Amino acid sequence: MTKIIGITGSIGMGKSTISSMLLKIGIPVFDSDAEVGAVLNNNIKIINQIYKRWPRAIVINKDKKTVNKKLLGDIIFKTAKDKLFLESLIHPLVQKQRDLFIKLNKNKKLIDLDIPLLFETKAYKICDYVLIADASNSIQRNRVLKRSNMTKQKFQLIKKNQFSNKERKKLSPKSYLITTNYGKLFTFMLVLKILLKIYFAKKVENKT
């Protein structure tokens, strides 16, 4: 029976690095960020709804509308109402693709759901185990501020909208913190150790 592993972590904690490690050792990964990107790039209905609400977040070239993701991100992280509205458009579509991914991989021993808002969207409830990327405040800050189009203000707004690792651990007793402070090799060894524990553990019957 398939065991579902959720992977999450605040911005700059190393969540994507951990997911890439699982992918390299043959564990199927559902990348929710990639699904969101696909919706914003290709779903005409959603693009038109974004244009109707935030016309300045859309670039029009030869009658083709394209989402300016940086500008859209700047808009939604400033106002909770705007953020909730965009999530109400996109999350149902991503959840549909997530459920399809689980169905298509039902014969796998382990599968991974890489979801930054795993706890905020309550998706942790369908997971048997959760891996939480963790890093010191200084390392997280340095990583994030090196990203293009990132500012200190935007970083703080993003953090404000994400659960802390302490809150995540409290909600999910079957969760493991994985530090990414000490380089990829050290992180990979931690990941392998936890995966072995999960692989040989009995299937969790009652999810929270």
Characterization of this structure:
It is a single chain. The protein has helices spanning 15-24, 32-42, 44-53, 69-76, 80-104, 137-145, 152-160, 165-171, 184-199; strands spanning 3-8, 29-31, 58-61, 64-67, 110-114, 129-134, 175-179. Helix 1 (15-24) packs across helix 9 (184-199) and helix 2 crosses helix 5. Residues 204-208 have low confidence and may be disordered. The chain contains 9 helices and 7 strands. A hairpin with a 2-residue loop joins strand 3 and strand 4 (64-67). The chain is 50% helix and 16% strand. The strands form 2 sheets. A 5-stranded parallel beta sheet has the order 2-5-1-6-7, sandwiched between helices. The chain is globular. It has 208 residues and is of the alpha/beta class. The protein starts with a strand and ends in a 9-residue tail after the last helix. The protein folds into 2 domains: 1-28 and 105-200, P-loop containing nucleotide triphosphate hydrolases (Rossmann fold), CATH 3.40.50; 34-95, no CATH class.
Descriptors for this entry?
two-stranded antiparallel sheet, disordered C terminus, 5-stranded parallel beta sheet, globular, Rossmann fold, 7 strands, 208 residues, 2 domains, alpha/beta
